[in-house]
Specification:
18 helices; Spore Coat Polysaccharide Biosynthesis Protein SpsA, Chain A; elongated; alpha/beta; 9-stranded mixed β-sheet
């Protein structure tokens, strides 16, 4: 976890929301500016907002903002409605379903507000029907082409709807979601940004990272049947799954457009205030997997509220070939083989070791090990130390349905580490899976790879503790990246053959990234399996470098990716800092 986020968590836990806001305002964290200052400095100017108001869009859909209310404090209600009235895109309607059950003050205020602004519609329910029932009643009032979900105690940035409609001028889009942040109870202090990746199937199956601001075509939300009361507390997680299952397109807008208020009774203010919501979220995830023809045992992750580890069921007849590229001069092959066989709960597994150490004294030991272990073969490699060439050579000798490429010197330290990777790798649409790799001292060596931009290839979370959360728990939960490390990488044999293996004309440290890039180019996902954890067995320098003498093919590839943005990163992260840092510079 970076220093800023770690301190936020500590202060919130020990001093509460007020203590956190006070510390944020005093800028105790570092010499750099607080997030609140960064937000103020980067929000649209009045001139920009005026230009938006004057924009004549060809496509101008009516957007219905759906809000269930329940004894909503009047100041929260006013701030929410004012945030809509300040929208630079004005073709909206507010649909409120009030389930307060006789709150005369609130009813009177709703009546007054609706008389003042004809875009405000509401229905008073005879009783509280729960958040799903109340939301469905609000949905019943909607006439818009798009439905947007807004909580009664939150509010929108003035450009929120404009950004949605702006994107519609170029493409037909079924689903939108945006970035968001946490704000203080009085709505005056922006505390922490939630900067999201573009659509990430594996991340969504770990937790509801989309949450706010969610906008969907009305015909889609109507087709799936609206909200279901059995998921109350996680009704948004459930509806997001069901909408995305039939949506043809989803657009992530990298702009902080939704402000999630932190107060004593909100999930944002106190994660333990709604434990029932996490149970409902588990059920929503389970039902989603069932509908798409998959099955998994859903496990809660210790200490991470509302985050899940789906252990996907696999076909027990699948076979895995472990290809170990061994170029380490000091390597205990027997220990390596033992560690793998003792960890794996699969009946069909083979190990292919390509030994490039060129140590003749080891040759007799090879035969001994082959006789000792079933489905083990050791072959010699007397050429260069190109991992692409060694792995391609080893892959040609395999019989398995799936290939696990493994650098020598790694041991699995999580239960069923290979099975965990196989469960994700056998999911529909997944092309390649990488594991979490630790240094000898249990700090992170690999937890996904970012590509693109000036730095071209970056390795986030290097050096943090295995149990550290990092930014929004990303190192600890399954998600998608643009690349994963070839130190521990799984791919189906079919996909590997289709991609013609690793590119032997690129350098070590690039061949795995280039392989993943081709996987994504051909329409498959690259997944990070956070619960498959491996560890180096000896102390090594904490760095990960690409060869300094680059081949021409490597140079071409690096130049190509430098022109793009990583879809699984966010442009709003500060460029001057480590990946996923929210330390903002002046």
């Amino acid at each position: 976890m970076n220093a800023y986020l770690e301190k936020c968590h500590f202060i919130l836990k020990n001093e509460g929301i007020r203590g956190l806001i006070k510390k944020v305002n005093k800028k105790i964290f570092c010499k750099d500016i607080s997030y609140n200052e960064w937000f103020i400095n980067n929000k649209p100017s009045e001139n920009e907002l005026d230009m938006q108001r004057q924009t004549n869009f060809k496509i101008r859909p009516l957007i219905s903002i759906i809000v269930p209310t329940f004894n909503t404090p009047l100041n929260f209600l006013h701030e929410m409605i004012e945030s809509l009235q300040k929208q630079t895109y004005t073709n909206w309607e507010l649909c409120i379903g009030d389930g307060s059950g006789g709150n005369s003050l609130l009813e009177k205020e709703l009546n007054f507000l609706a008389s003042e602004d004809k875009r405000i519609k509401y229905v008073i329910l005879d009783k509280n029907r729960g958040i799903s029932g109340n939301t469905n009643c609000a949905l019943g009032l909607a006439k818009g082409e798009y439905i947007a979900l807004l909580d009664h105690d939150d509010f929108l940035a003035p450009q929120a709807l404009f950004r949605i409609v702006e994107a519609l001028q170029e493409d037909e889009i079924d689903v939108f979601y945006t970035d968001e942040d946490f704000v203080s109870g009085d709505g005056k202090t922006h505390i922490f940004p939630i900067l999201k990746p573009d659509y990430s199937e594996e991340l969504l199956c770990s937790h509801n990272y989309i949450t706010h601001f969610f906008v969907v075509r009305k015909e889609i939300i109507t087709t799936v049947g609206g909200f279901q009361s059995e998921f109350d507390g996680a009704q948004d997680y459930d509806i997001i799954f069901r909408c995305l299952e039939i949506a043809k397109s989803v657009k992530h807008i990298q702009d902080i457009l939704y402000h999630w208020r932190m107060h004593a009774s909100s999930v944002a203010g106190d994660p333990e205030s709604k434990n029932y919501a996490y149970e409902a979220g588990e059920k929503a995830l389970e039902k989603h997997l069932y509908r798409i023809g998959e099955s998994a045992t859903i496990k809660k992750i210790d200490g991470l509220h509302g985050m899940y580890q789906p252990a996907f069921e696999i076909d027990e007849n699948l076979s895995v070939s472990v290809v170990i590229a061994n170029v380490e001069t000091e390597c205990d092959l027997e220990k390596e083989i033992n560690d793998i066989y003792n960890n794996v709960k699969l009946k069909n597994i083979e190990i292919i070791i390509i030994d490039g150490r060129k140590v003749k004294e080891e040759y007799k030991n090879h035969k001994k090990l082959e006789n000792q272990y079933k489905n083990l073969k050791i072959d010699l490699w007397d050429k260069n130390d190109s991992y692409a060439q060694i792995n391609n050579y080893g892959a040609n000798k395999t019989r398995g349905d799936y290939l696990l490429f493994l650098n020598s010197g790694l041991s699995p330290i999580s239960g069923d580490a290979i099975r965990e990777m196989l469960g994700i790798c056998s999911r529909r649409g997944v092309g390649v899976v990488g594991a979490k790799v630790l240094y000898y001292d249990n700090t992170v060596r690999h937890a996904g790879i970012l590509i693109g931009g000036n730095k071209k290839i970056e390795y986030p979370f290097i050096g943090i503790d295995n149990f550290a959360d990092g930014y929004l728990q990303r190192p600890r939960i399954n998600c998608n990246y643009s690349a994963v490390s070839g130190m521990c990488m799984m791919v189906s044999k079919k996909v590997f053959i289709e991609e013609r293996g690793f590119n032997e004309n690129v350098n070590n440290g690039i061949s795995d990234v280039e392989f993943c890039y081709r996987i994504i180019e051909h329409g498959k996902r690259v997944a990070y399996a956070a619960h498959s954890i491996w560890k180096t067995r000896k102390k090594i320098k904490k760095a990960y470098c690409i060869d300094t003498q680059l081949t021409e093919e490597s140079k071409r590839f690096l130049k190509m990716i430098s022109n793009g943005e990583d879809p699984y990163y966010n442009k709003n992260f500060p460029l001057q800092t480590e990946p996923f840092s929210v330390i903002f510079k002046k």
